[in-house]
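Appendix B, example 12.
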Amino acid sequence: MLEDRYYMRDEERSSRFSATVILMITLAVVFALQNIDYVYTRLGMTSYLSLSTEGLRQGFVWQLFTFQFLHAGLFHLFFNLLCLWFFGRIVEARLGTAAFWKIYLAGGVLGGVLQAGLGFALPQFFGWPVVGASAGVCALIAAFALMEPEAIIMLMGMFPMKAKYLLALETGIAAFFTLVPANQGVAHAAHLGGIATGVAIIKWALYDYSPSIRWRPFRNRTRRRQLVRAATIKPGFWKTKGGIPKAEQVEPEEFISREVDPILDKISAHGLQSLTPREKQILEAARSKMDKR
């Protein structure tokens, strides 16, 4: 349905009690429990749930999942929460809650697999226990950068950088320190695995950045150009003064098929930023008509 698409949702409604907010609260609660356990209960929660080659040898495969919810310190937690707030909410709004969880959890698990695999192969460099949501967060950042490559990100709150360059920088750092593991305080291999997972899911599982649009692997660049041309509405279809179709004069299904679908194809091919003011008005007209149903 048209109202299910991210750009036709009410922002407040889509962010209230979202999976992103729930995840952020969960991470904060788990971190508090970690500290309570460390000071009072002393059950060894962190050592039992963090990802380690020793634990995997004992069959603790759940560590590939549980390590994503633990953190090594307050700054570690804060940085991941900050990234979830800025990137996770947008990914969830665009792709939906199910896709958000898929990207986050798959990024964490596969990032953990890469980190643990290197831990078995090179224990002197990668054999230490790992905690943190960073692998899943990196997957979400990668997904955001692929969907909004031209979006401006304020790096460290001071340096403007396009999302596509942020992804390239993040990938370069993770790849370099995976190949040259000089810093054992950061799980760069897990970050790299998370980035690769986010890219793979967007490119091959959620092509066109919408769960409702299926991937057509043999669609070529010529087809993309045809989609863009199709997004320019031909004269004569339900025109009013100013060239904007009047949605109230036609059935919703016909209006969406003739006027809205070509615009949605254009968004799929080139992003929301490619729309003209007129095309945005058509989407608003469609939303108004859907709200009245």
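The beta strands are 152-155, 159-162. Residues 1-14, 208-245 have pLDDT under 50 and may be disordered.
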